[in-house]
Amino acid sequence: MSTPQGERVPETTGRSVVVLSDAVRGDRDAIAAALRSLADIASVVGTADDPAGLDPDAAAAADAIAFDASASRSSRAIRAR
Q1: For the chain, which has fewer Cβ within 10 Å, the N-terminal or C-terminal residue?
Q2: 59 vs 2: CA distance, rounded Å
């Protein structure tokens, strides 16, 4: 990408946020299938997978993390690497 001299190019994290509809709320298989259809994602861990909380080692190894929305929210947010 060419930029004018002295102009800074914005940097990105390489991560995305995907918001899914209520149709897949609570359906881990549907969430994983939706992610796999959008990107090369093989493993998904979720904050609802373990009542004790998200395992840091599993999160670090996963391609995506599904963050459960609160009961008042109408979607799930997914952080994908």
Answers
A1: N
A2: 36
Sheet (strand 76-80) strand order: 16-20, 76-80, 64-67, 44-46
Spatial separation of the C-alpha atoms in residues 78 and 68, rounded to whole Å: 9
E-only strand ranges, the chain: 16-20, 44-46, 64-67, 76-80
The span from the CA of 47 to the CA of 54, in Å, is 5
Half-sphere CA count of 5, side-chain side, radius 13 A: 0
